[in-house]
Amino acid sequence: MDPVKHTGGCHCGAVRFEVWSSPDLHVFHCNCSVCTKKQNHHFIVPKNAFTLLQGSDNLTTYTFNTHVAKHTFCKTCGVQSFYTPRSNPDGYGVAPHCLDPGTVLSVTVDTFCGEKWEESMQAHKSIRDMSKPAADSQLRD
Fold it and tell me: Is the pLDDT of residue 33 over 50?
C-alpha cells in the first residue's frame, strides 16, 4: 500500500511532526526498562520519511546504557511522540497514539523483548530494514 502522510505531536501542541508511512502500522511493544516505564509503543520509519514541523527548541533528550537511543520528549508536557531507537539509529520510532486521527487503517503489534535486546535483534530479521531510506518518489504530498 502507498504511504500516507500522518501528522501528530505532543499533548500541549508545542511539538508537531509529519511522517510518511503505511496506513497499516506495524507497531513494536518493547519491554526494556525505559519502554516498560513509559509504555512505549512505536513504529519505525526512515529519517527521510519524518519531518519535525515545530518545537525543536521545546525538545529534550534522555539517554542511558549504550546512549544510542535518543529518547526525545517535550519539555512542557513530557510526551515522547517520537524518538531515535537503538535498533534503528538511522530512523525514528513514532508513537502511534500521538498521531492525529483519520489516517491509520490498522495497527499490528509485535512484541520486542528489550530485556534480551541482542537476542531479539538477531531473531527479528526485518527490524533494521524498517529505517532504510524510502525513495523520495514514495513520499509525496
Answer: yes
